User: Fold Phosphoenolpyruvate-protein phosphotransferase from Aerophobetes bacterium.
Amino acid sequence: IKREKVNAETALRQVYKSFPEKFKVVQLEFMQERFRDVEDVAERVMRNLLKSPILSLSHLEENIIVVAYDLAPSDTASMDKEKVLGFATDIGGRTSHTAIMARALEIPAVVGLRDVTKKVKPGTTIIVDGDRGRVIINPTPAQIKKYEERKRKFLAYRETLETLKPLPAQTLDGREIELAANIAGPEEVDLAVKNGAEGIGLYRTEYLYMNRTSLPTEEEQLQAYAAVAEKVAPHSVIIRTLDIGGDKFLSPLSVPKEINPFMGWRAIRLSLELVEIFKTQLRAILKASRYGKVKVMFPMVSSLEEVKKANQILSEVKKELEKEGFSFSNPIEVGIMIEVPSAAIMADVLAKEVDFFSLGTNDLIQYTLAVDRVNEKVAHLYQPLHPTILRLIDNVIKAAHRENIWVGACGEMASDPLGMAVLLGLGVDELSVAPTSILEIKKVIRNLSWEETQKLASHLLKLSTSQQTRRYLGTKLGRRIRKILKEENNA
Assistant:
C-alpha cells in the first residue's frame, strides 16, 4: 500500500493472486488442500473491506439449497429449516457435528463430496439425496418426477410411524428401553416431544456460546435450560456442560488455534481451567432443576482426577447457591460421557464417582481407532462394529452395572438400527437419538427380542475383525431389520 499507493482492496487482490503458484511449489497434498482455507480467509477479508453483506442462513426470503466447501456446526444449527431445503459440502463425514445437526433438523444433506462447489453454480437446479449420499446436477424431468414420488412415499411412511408414538420402546420379551432425544437448543425440543421422546438424553449446550460476541449470561442459560426442562417434564433432561473444541469453536473466547483440536484444549479440560465460566453454567443448570428433572453430564472425561475436580466445583456452586437462598434439586444426578479410551478402560473406577454413564460412540470410535471422523479420506477406517469398540462398550456397561448405575448411548451408533440392536444386546439402559430417528428406532426395538440381541452381541464379542462382525450381523439381522423397515425401503 505504501510502495505502490494502492488501496487495501487492490493490495489484497494482488497478494492473493500470487498464492496459487506458491502453493503449487509445495508438493504435499495437505498444503495443496490448505489453499482453499487461505482462499476463504481472503474472500472474507475482501467482503469486509467492501462492506459486502454476508449471507445468513437463519433469515431467508426464498427456498434454497446450500452448496459450500464446509459449514460450521453453528451455521447448520441456525439454518432456517423452512427455507433451506438441503445442503451439500466438499468436506465432512457422516459423524461430523454438521451432518449430525442436519439429521436432527430434518435437512437433507450430503457431505464430503470434495468438489461439489466447483460443479454447482448459483441458480443451478439440483437434487440432494441425503439417504443415498448423492447430488444430481441439472436433473431431467423424469428424475424430478421419480424423486417427488419417493418423497411422497417417505412422508406416507412417516405417517405410519406416528401410531407408535404412545407405545413404549419395549422388546418382544418385555425389556423396556428409555428412548430419549439429542438436541442443541430449546427450539428442537418440540420436535423431540412430537416424536415421542422420553426426555432429552443429550442437550448440547455449546451452541448457546457460538456465533456471538459475548458469553451467554447465567440468566440466558437458565431460561434456555428451564424451557427444555418444563417441556419434557416429567421426563428428565441431561444437560451436557460446554463441549467446545474439535469442529466446534467458541466465538467470544480467545481459544488458541491447535494443530489437532480434537485432542487439545476442549470440553471438560477447558471448563476446569476456565472455572468462572464453568461455575456460571453450573449455577444456571442447578437453578433450572426447579423447573423439571435435570441431570448434569461432563464431556470428554479421561481421568478420575477430572471427575473429582468437576464434582468438587459442582459442590462449591451448590454451597454458593444455598448461601444466596436459591433452591434447586439436591442431590442432582451427575454423569459423564464415555468417549475416550482411558475412560472406557477405567470405567470400573469412574463408576464409583457418578450416577450414570453415557456412551459417546462417535468420539470413542474416533479416538480408539485413530480416525478423524470429519476426514472423508479415512472414512472407511471408521468402524462402529470394530471388535475393539464392541469390547470397550461391553467393559463399560458391565462395570457400570456392577456399581448399580445405568448406561445410555447418545452417539450415531444408537440411531443406526443395526448398531442399536448391538447396543441393546450389550445391555444399554437408555438410547438417545436424533428426534427424527426416535419412531423408527422404536419400531425396530418393538420387533426384536432382548434375548436374541444378547446372543447376537455375545457372538460378536468373540470375533476378531470388522469384516467378520459386519458379515455376521448382516447375515443374522440385516434382512430382518430391512423387513421391519420395509415401508421406508419401498419409498
